[in-house]
Amino acid sequence: MLKNPILYSAFVILSAVVGLIGCERDDSEPDLEMRKFTRLYISYEEYGTSNLGVPDTNIRVVYPADSSEFGLSLRHVSGARGGGPMLLASFADGQRRLLQASVNSGGSNDTSVYVMDVGQTGVLTNIRNGWMSNRLFTYVKGLAYSRRADMLFFVNGDGSNNSGIYGISQPRLRLGYTRPLKKYRTPGLRMWGAAYESDRLFTSNLGSNPGIFVFEEVNDTPVGADSSAVLRPARTLTIREATNLRGLFYDTVNNVLAITDFTDGRTLGSGKIFLFDNFSDLIEQEGDITPSRVITGPSTGLIQPVDVVLDTRENGVYLYVADRASRRVSRFRISDNGNVAPDKYIETTEEAYGKQATPVGLALDTRSPQ
């Protein structure tokens, strides 16, 4: 026990300083609270904003993501020149990897997807030569993985004649220059996001009649001698209320699909999260599909949501959404509907955070204690 009052005061001050510095630490130390293993990885698009040449932190972590305290606790710097969409994948050999595409904007030409090892406690480690690079990967806005086929899909849907979906076979072995096994050309299609289930790939349709493209037999569609083929959606599930769809997420455990949308990207409360229960019943439909719930309105704080993830555990409660315009990552309940305030949120504006950081991609790691 510290009986000297001067020593005690110094101890209290030192503890407070250490606590402040430790609020957001490098992602290099395991947290012993394995009973609360929910890590939310957030991809930020800033790159090269420092005059000192120091890379911007392009991944931040909320851990645990489902507790009463919801704040940034860890940080990591990948090789991406500004972060884009992310995917947490458990490969066929059991390796768990986090993949991050580059934002590829503002003159930064980075046609690579970066690969990080995810340790038993969720700590990220950059792999040596840990990138998949190809001049085709110019606009990667969606990542999905088929464990059955051991195939990783990149959605590169900019709407040009070079628009396509690229299949990378045995991705754990593909580092450095990466040649896709399958080059599906999707000329003219503007796409965002990706979700995979039972040889189907789902992406957001950013063109007219916004909705969800359903691509069938993406593992088994034959390709030519040049590894390419034209792939067209089997159908489009149109969402009448949608304007500018972006990221989507399919929770196959609870059979719920969530997809983000916004109008002008400036008006408070105009952003939307569409939720579809029993989504497998809708996949074979033609034409319009009606959401089970829509989270929208001024109380939500949504302006320009661009990505969403759900807690896929059977008792999962929360969904998480990244909003590019408000620079918020918000946590809602999956059961929420209408004009509801988020359960929690993190804001990384200049005023709130001290430095501008724009969230554009999410990945959620939920595991049972080891």
From TrEMBL:
SUPFAM superfamilies: YWTD domain. InterPro entries: 6-blade_b-propeller_TolB-like. This is 6-bladed beta-propeller protein.
